[in-house]
Amino acid sequence: MSSASSSYLLTGLTLPDGTVSDIQIVDGVIAALGNSRPNSSGAQTIDFSGCVALPGLVDLHTHLREPGKEDAETVLSGSMAAAKGGYVAISAMANTSPVADTAGVVEQVFALGQSAGFADVFPIGAVTQGLNGETLSEIGAMADSNAHVRVFSDDGSCVHDPLVMRRALEYVKKFGGVIAQHAQEPSLTKGAQMNEGEISSRLGLKGWPAVAEEAIIARDVLLADHVKSRLHICHLTTAGGVEIIRWAKARGIDVTAEVTPHHLLLTDETAKSYDPIFKVNPPLRTQRDVEALREGLADGTIDIVATDHAPHPAESKECEWQEAAFGMLGLESALAIVNQTMVQTGLLNWEGVADRMSYAPARIGRYASHGQKIAVGAPAHLTVINPTQTYRVDRDLVASRSRNTPFHGMELTGVIHGTFFRGLPTYFSGKLTSIHSQNRIEIQGGATL
Amino acid sequence: MKHLLSINDLSKAQAIAILDTAQELARVSDGPMKKLPTLRGRTIVNLFAEDSTRTRISFEAAAKRLSADVINFSAKGSSISKGESLKDTAQTLQAMGADAVIIRHGASGAAQRLADSKWMSGAVINAGDGTHEHPSQALLDAFTIRKHLAKSAQDLNGIKVVIVGDVLHSRVARSNVLLLAKLGADVTLVAPPTLLPVGVESWPCKVSYDFDSALVEADAVMMLRIQLERMSELFFPNAREYSRYFGLNGDRVKLLKPTTLVMHPGPMNRGLEITADAADGARSVIVEQVSNGVSVRMAILYMLLAGAPEDDLAGVNKEMGAML
User: Fold this and answer.
1) Does A119 have pLDDT greater than 80?
2) Is A323 on the interface with B (CB under 8 A)?
């Protein structure tokens, strides 16, 4: 049955362009498209009627916590959460312990991802040593390593020194790299807990002004313009930030930007509960910001959705708000939230989703084998979603090692039915299976010929 | 009503009921036998994770006058100073059978976290949480104002209250604005722009940067404590300049109406936000605020724990009739 385990016929799918098609996968590659194709190749047939097929999702912003905080997440558990969420490639942020600021650490994370076998794990390198904001890390060595790092970020901290930022932007031009900035002016956000506005003032929680984010974005697009380099802005959260990016793009500056699913859905109203499950960096903003982010994602000002998946152990959230850690899970619910906030609302079609969650993030990260259109000859990275089916989020059922999902108890629209990574089902029929143990998989609901 | 976490938990009628009950209970405190048997056999924990003198002693006295067993639990010398989490502390108190926890905590929302969690089942009373609220302080301030100035025995309709100082970091100011506005008072906040929160325009009060023009009309002037470390955070240049524009001194007291009350929740920084002649002068009710605090906190405990109908005083009157 070795041929059966690497050959599938997926039937009844709607492609991003709206056409209904079967997809034939052979040896990790899309072998054929079209309707009512007779199955003569001994492939396993899976009926996906009513579902949409997307190019496998790519996340440009994931915290996998390994090395250093394996109680919260590991490369393996995070990869499994990714597969369950429809992702075939994720990008491991550098703020681990030790920090991913040398070739050794990024190669280790890359290798752990490969041996896990649920998704490609592309390490992001730190911009500065130990995220200190002062001295550049071994950027060239990381770029030349087995991990082929192209994205560099001090995420969690802002590269706030303008000279350091300028030098980093210049330095990565050598190999077509990009600096992904966590835009947060530190002196305006010392001790900050949530969006600064009417709600923070009433709650007595220290405010995090929108300008602390926007001032850095404005500075950095000007720097990127000056040195003619590539800038990516992580997790945009404010209406003002969207306007600055729109202006920069109109001016021809090479800038891209991301938005997280939680910033597309939740607002600072959630802080009224004082439940730190809603505490995140950057903070949840106002409804006006949410609407501007959705609009920006629809018109392409914001290039991608990135999860900022940030697992934390229970004790980091079961406490007072100001004691709690920043961050929330994202991988497993991202596509449902994008479906709900962008597709069901008519703001974005499936071709748009494919772009924002697969083509564009792969292009920004230079992940050559990912983010390709569903076409004959393309690598068979696929995500299958039933866009009208609903489910209730249950934190006890997540694949992640942590449970800090802010969506617990919420009903979301859009259920993932399958994730195919290199032509193999890493997630199907409720089961997670590594590509390295596919001989043990039993496909249910599909006929084997 | 199970908990008192914020003034928003109280309707106007409930707030007035607490003030009325406190008024009755004050008679007990003035009498020869200061104790009522109401909460006999109930256990009340004073959980003070942040330093406090008057609020902790005031709640302790209130609980003891209602015959409750009181356990004091302070950060210093307890497992909190060893880094025990709020969750573990709460579960410990639950295991010891606390009927109510009076919590003072440096984190905004700590009282609500305790009440909303499943860590413990008793009543939670917020005795000051971070820079959020201090509802019992607002109730005792309203009680003091009503006692001296109210035209009716009910609300504070039309009374002009000026609250001066570090509104941004003040839980006393937040609770007072909510309560005094609810009771019909006309509240004005006076502070340098740096010490007013973003979005203060949405609060049910007026805002002024000019103490001298605001104080002329005031029926009560409430001074807030200013912490000296605010200077290093650039909220104002130095203590002298703060005092010059926002301190209550003898000259400003002369501009007040003869009946205007001078109030301060304590502890005072004498010479900074208030001078001795203002704090100790004829208009000052600062010491009286402390004694009113005990009666008001008795009323809060009575309402939350004695199962009394929330806007009915028959219970307490009957009980006191039997006592006196």
Assistant:
1) yes
2) yes
In DSSP terms, A90 is beta-bridged to A121
Same domain, A47 and A165: no
Query: Which chain A residues touch B167 with a CB distance below 8 Å?
Result: none
Residue of B6, B84, B112 to mutate, interface with A, max A Cβ within 10 Å? B112
Which residues in chain B are closer than 8 Å to A200, comparing Cβ atoms? 197-199
Asked, as a colleague might, if the bond just before A209 is cis with ω within 30 of 0, I would say no
Predicted complex ipTM: 0.92
Looking at the fold, whether A277 and A162 belong to one and the same domain comes out as: yes
Q: What is the pTM of this model?
A: 0.94
Domains: count for chain A = 2
Q: Which residue of B has its CA nearest to A207?
A: B198
> Would you state the pLDDT for residue A43?
85
Give the domain extent around A382: 4-54+377-440
**CATH number for the domain including A207?**
3.20.20.140
B132 contacts A204? CB cut-off 8 A: yes
Q: What is the distance between the alpha carbons of residues B205 and B187, in angstroms, rounded to a whole number?
A: 5
Determine the Cα–Cα distance for residues A428 and A441; give it in Å rounded to an integer. 10
Mean pLDDT (chain A) is: 95
| A12 plus A29 within the same structural domain | yes
Domain assignment present for residue A62? The answer is yes
Q: Sort out which chain A residues have CB atoms less than 8 A from B234's CB and list them.
A: none
At residue A49, φ and ψ (nearest 5 deg) are -55, 135
Q: Tell whether A449 is covered by a domain.
A: no
Tokens of B280: 């100790």
- What's the pLDDT tens digit per position in A389-447? 999 999 999 999 999 999 999 999 999 999 999 999 999 999 999 999 986 544 444 33
Chain A's closest residue to B7, CA to CA, is A202
pLDDT tens, position by position, A43-96: 899 999 999 999 999 999 999 999 999 999 999 999 999 999 999 999 999 999
Q: In this structure, are A323 and A392 located in the same domain? A: no
Task: Say if residue B315's pLDDT is above 80.
Answer: no
CB-count exposure of residue A46 (10 Å: 0-12, 13-18, 19+): buried
Task: Based on the residue annotation, tell me whether A220 is a catalytic residue of this protein.
Answer: no
Q: Are residue A333 and residue A203 in the same domain, yes or no?
A: yes
Closest-CA distance, A207 to chain B, in angstroms, reads: 9
* Dihedral Cα A92, A98, A100, A103, nearest 10 deg: -130
Q: Are A252 and A391 within one domain?
A: no
Q: How many CB pairs under 8 A join A and B?
A: 71
What are φ and ψ of residue B231, in 5° steps? Answer: -60, -45
Q: Shortest CB distance from A274 goes to which of B112, B197, B203?
A: B112
Burial of A448 (0-12, 13-18, 19+ CB in 10 A): exposed
Taking contacts as CB-CB distances below 8 angstroms, the residues of chain B near A202 are: 174, 199, 203
Give me the CATH topology for the region B7-134+293-323.
Rossmann fold (3.40.50)
Reading the block at residue A129, the tokens are 């040593």
Assess whether A320 and A387 both reside in one domain. Answer: no
Nearest CA in chain B to A322: B107
Per CATH, which fold does B135-288 belong to?
A: Rossmann fold (3.40.50)
